[in-house]
Amino acid sequence: MTEINHKQIDNSNNNNYEVEEDIANKRVFKGNKNIVIAFISVAISVLPIIYVSRVLDNIGIFIPNVSFLSLMLALLIILGFMLLPIKPIKKVEDKSKIPWYDFMIILLSIIAPIYNFFNWGTNAYRYIYYDFYLFEIVIGFFTIIAVLELTRRAIGLAMPLVTAIFLLHMFFGYKLTGFLKTPKITIVNGVANLIYYDTGIFGVALQVAATVIILFLIFSQFMIKLGGTNFLFNVSLSIFGHVRGGPAKVAAVSSALMGMFSGSTTANIASTGVFTIPMMKRIGYKPEFAAAVEAVASNGGQIMPPVMGMVAFVMAQWLGIDYSQIVIMAIIPAFLYFFALFIIIDSKACLEDIKGIPKEKCPIFINTIKEGWFYLIPIISLIFFIVVLKYSPEFSILYSIVAIFLAKGIKKILKIITREDKVFSFLIIAKNTYKLILTVLKNAGTLMLTPGIVTACCGIIIGSLSVTQLGVTLARYAVEFASQNVIFLLLIAAFTCFVLGMGMSSLPAYIMTVIVVAPALLDFGIPPIATHFFVFWFSIISFITPPVAVGAYVAAGIANANGYETGIESMKLGFVEFILPFIFVLNPGLLMQNTIDVVLIKFLFAIIAVAFISFGISNYFFGKLNTIKRFLFILGGLLIISLNYRIVILGILLSATAVILQVIRMRKNKINL
Q1: Which of 1, 386, 472, 620 is 20 to 30 A from 671 (CA-CA)?
Q2: Stated pTM of the model
Q3: Over the stretch 150-190, which tens digit does the pLDDT of each residue have?
Q4: How far is the C-alpha of 520 from the C-alpha of 493, rounded, in Å?
């Protein structure tokens, strides 16, 4: 039986991670270099707060959007080339050295964004007429190359390679034949569109990263540093730890909640898996199953509203709708995902007689809430501002950051007023608060490096497509190739999303796939909302799907399990992620795209379908199932989830047959229901 030394689990050492695993191989500095890194990181966090809060506007200083984004890109480039080496560093002593060529790259590549920051407002009128100086094109070209290289250092070769292909096509596509042929684009026009207009690097993707994602990173870092993630973990443990298969259910719930603070499946696994996986193994779950539960739950954290791995912010901007609408649409799909996971976890526990943790060794729910109630205030306030008041994500997050301080401050003040040394205590708190703020701003600025540079790289793809119109052409040919067969088109789209999203965290995976895949689905007539949800879900599916299965392999490493077998188990546990995206397109009711009565009916059928499929996959329904009954449950569930009423009836008949056969068997063997 598992041993828990403390009733309140403290996993701060694991989830107070400062840098995502994507950029874990970074240089480490001391002394003056470290001060420079800290200053730049803090600046990356502070500038968006100043810009979003309109502080400068109120005193008569107006900064154009492109100028602001240019300054942010310059800081990201400096930070990136200082922290990220050209290749993995093997010698410890080399981790504190910056080679001369990285200094040269920094100097050459920041000229254009710094020039933009100071001059774009006055040059904008000239740019309307495509009037550019030669040096503007040259310095812009250096910046484009630097963004590609920094993206490679941050997340690997795949994305910059795809981006380079689009760049080459923009400049040399006029030499091709057929549907890939483009008008001749000069170097001047190409570079200008990417650097000096808001259609390229300084477009919507970087805009969202520099105004919304960075604020969310600050919010999440405050919650992590103040112990908010520990509180959520302990709440999950207090509710589910002692029930049948408890640690696995704790993994599912805590990982779903962690999705509010992390934009990475593997970061979720690292923060919760180090506790949940050993607990699952100790109570009887096999290593592969335990690792798969954590991998699937952590991947589910990326589709969990209100944040959805930071994708929701970009999706709302791209669709041109309120962020609150994205949050509401994501509720039913996320519920079905974790509902299926819970059923399989519980069925596995029943099948193998796996108990929970002794109740006396779990945190007490009431005590946990009493000690950490104030952590709920910023989370509730974030949802309230976004969904109820319909504030923009930027202001909602800003107000929620203030709510963190108010909530934590109230508790501190209540403790201090009972002490005699009140003044000294206030001074200590002020000092600690100052250190906390600097640490959070530094961490958030460092974490911004990956989404910031990735969205800049995506801007190159978007800018290239806007010039060549290749996206429109590819969409038209994809629709023709599918021969008006929507299922065939969706299968092609799903496979493309899987390939393009391999190895990337949720945000870059979504951006990359939506740029390439979405135009074809939209051209076919599929609603934009269904298209974006379809693309998003399939863009992150590679985390739990062999042969890639990055999330499954990371979890398997913690569990000392076989990585490939963990990936297979992950696919079974996460089957909803393979099915629901098709339903989004064929029947958008699950995205609340219908009247409330229709949505509720479809939701009810979806719950029934997911339950039946889960019974079949887990091989349990009040007892072990034989092959025929498993087949009937799975096939019946698949037919029901089609939400086509004629097919639904057939699915219900098949599943009902399996239920009746199982009940007859149980009565025959005198097994209690």
Answers
A1: 1
A2: 0.82
A3: 999 988 888 899 899 999 999 998 888 877 888 888 999 99
A4: 8
